[in-house]
Amino acid sequence: MEYTSTRNDQLSVQAAEAILRGIAPDGGLFVPKQFPSLPVEEVLDLSYPETAQKVISLFLTDYAPEFLRKAAEQTYGGERFAQKAGYVSPVGDSGMYSLELWHGPTCAFKDYALQLMPKLLVQAKEILGDTNVTKILVATSGDTGKAALAGYADLPGIKIAVFYPNEGTSEIQRLQMVTQKGENVAVYAVQGNFDDAQTGVKRVFGDPAVAERLAEKGEKLSSANSINWGRLVPQIVYYFYAYAQLVRQEVIENGERVDFCVPTGNFGDILAGYYAKRMGLPVGKLICASNKNNVLTDFLTTGVYDARRLFYKTESPSMDILVSSNLERLLYHITGDSKKVADWMAQLNQQGHYQVDHETLAQIQEHFACGCANDEDGAQEIRRCFEKNGYLMDPHTAVAWHVAASLRTNTAEQPCVILSTASPYKFPASVLAALGQSVPADEFEALRTLEEKSGMPAPESLRVLRGQTERFGQVISKEEIRQVALSL
Ligand SMILES: *Cc1c(COP(=O)(O)O)cnc(C)c1O
């Protein structure tokens, strides 16, 4: 399978190179040149690791099938996802189902990609004979940092540094990061907000002097963010696996359409659903759910992408984003025109906005619906769903639940699967407040109160954080990120 760039379709590389490079030399994103087809019958009776191997090997044709089989088994089999990889909860709320993607080691859906991608990266270096030490720099608002640390810890030939905004994450998210074990990991708080951390990291990536000094030592920078093809491809798997479960549970017959509603930030998770559809999965609408930062709702409604707007800090921080990078991939697949895409992206970079033509918008709307929910809508949804079904959801999932429910006009419609992207116990204070409870100042007290209220134990990996040693406590300025990159 060959890959090209969204901004220059003359380019052609294999998967290993797309994964090792991360981003195309012209600044575009790597995209597959065709979509392999995968009939649902072929995955109906497969386990999650088997489904993963099937889907991923169709795209990573330059990787040995046996390597992929083992990698999928090690990642998704066993206890790492608590035997609940791709689990669809039976909570049937008027035809809506919850695809629980938070049973992995860091309790957010990013584990699906970040537990596998490090193995894909190490193997890509092997395939391409690249002997550099890879230094991974990650700016994070919370979830990505821990998931990347957990995925890359103690891998050969890799070092990783994570930068989070000082006092900008939840206490649990901070503890998850600063207690990370491993010889090759480092974690820093950066003065300022997430944008400061992100800008600081981007500046280092764009600094030729840094690249040169690292090259002298046989080192190379790389990023773990969601524009890497290696992060997207593992996410296609759970769309197939969720669909197969609904068929096995006789909720639908094979061939009937199912909608998926996805709490969206960088547009990676929902794009994987579009890929599944292009591979032949009977998907109806992909519903793009945004929080108060609703730039995508506006785009999918009007065709105008306008990032010149206020940035809101919300209770669903992983969706607080104004430039959704992976949308660029969709624009390429819909138009098949890398010149057009390059123009739009240049406009976005220079002027902060662009507008797609009428035909492009109409084609996008054939596949995508959209909606947004503010913090209050989300909180009401958490409470309503808990009181009605005894089912607890986190603030990101709640945004999607609210959007899906408000788009559904009658319960006889086709089933809708909501992607549940984080454990409610990752945001105990926010969830308790939504339930109308008083919130203890200490996050672990909040966690315990929430356990009592719900009668459902919190994931072990969060509970044990309380007693663990904090390994990293350094606070740096964004200018100092450069020094960290050089000395790591
Ligand atoms: C990252 C994240 C999202 C958004 O996913 P994208 O692929 O960036 O659209 C939603 N929910 C949670 C909990 C996340 O961590």
UniProtKB/TrEMBL annotation:
Residues 102-420 form the Tryptophan synthase beta chain-like PALP domain. Pfam families: PALP (PF00291), Thr_synth_N (PF14821). Its cofactor is pyridoxal 5'-phosphate. NCBIfam families: thrC. The keyword RNA-binding does not apply. Residues 2-76 form the Threonine synthase N-terminal domain. This is Threonine synthase. Belongs to the threonine synthase family. Its EC number is 4.2.3.1. It comes from the Bacteria. GO terms for molecular function: threonine synthase activity. Keywords: Lyase, Pyridoxal phosphate. CDD domains: Thr-synth_2 (cd01560).
